Amino acid sequence: MDHVALFTETSRACSKLITQRYSTSFTLGIRTLDARFHLPVYSVYGFVRWADEIVDTFHAHDKAALFADFRRQTYEALDIRLSLNPVLHAFQDVVHRYNIDREFIDAFLYSMEMDLDDRSYNQSLYERYIYGSAEVVGLMCLRVFCEGNAALFDQLREPARRLGSAFQKVNFLRDIRSDYEERGRVYFPGVQYERFTDEVKRTIEADIRADFEAGYAGIVQLPRAARLGVYLAYVYYLKLFHKIRQLPAASILGERVRVPGNTKLLLLLGSYFRYRLRAL
């Protein structure tokens, strides 16, 4: 192996480690994909995770300056097809190999930059934030799964967006307290934290349920090599959503809902058997 290939392989391994350290659920989902998709999806997650860390974690530093530098390094890596930042090097390699749209990257970075400011969201900003922070991540992965099949990508584009939207909105519901208390954010348009009622919660849940239904319609059309991994993410978030739905609004403001590890294992087993029986 030449040294350039070794550097790229090592960069991918760094993104894999980041995924494993930051998200056991996402790591589990990736492992159920066909092996050829593992490193590309790890590379996408590593990029997304690093950007999110800048805006959500390093409060003692100038996050705007850090993010501006990360954005500059991202575009430089894409332009010259190299970065000494292993996360960005692995990401640019995937972008070029799978023809991931530059517009997806632009939208993602814009949404992450929005998180640098405490704000309330109107409907337009809410939709733009969800598109950039979640939907385009699903579209990046869809480019990988479709392996150059443009017609299949276009067919599954809208369901992939709706699935990413469902996941993000579930995150917003689960984290509504921490987002408000730690970051001064309320993502849901027109919702005041102090007036988060059961009625408001039910309205949000109806919107999420519609996204889940539209997203599932795309999962069953995915290439079989990718279907189980995406379905596992779907059933995990659906389980989390069902737990949230069973609680009153006051409980959501008082505790962070989780899916226990043993339940995740059962979800994995159930998903695997459905997949093997071709019920999925």
Automatic annotation (TrEMBL):
SUPFAM superfamilies: Terpenoid synthases (SSF48576). InterPro entries: Isoprenoid_synthase_dom_sf, Squ/phyt_synthse, Squalene/phytoene_synthase_CS, Trans_IPPS_bact-type, Trans_IPPS_HH. Keywords: Transferase. PANTHER family: BIFUNCTIONAL LYCOPENE CYCLASE/PHYTOENE SYNTHASE. This is Phytoene/squalene synthase family protein. The lineage of its organism: Bacteria, Pseudomonadati, Bacteroidota, Cytophagia, Cytophagales.
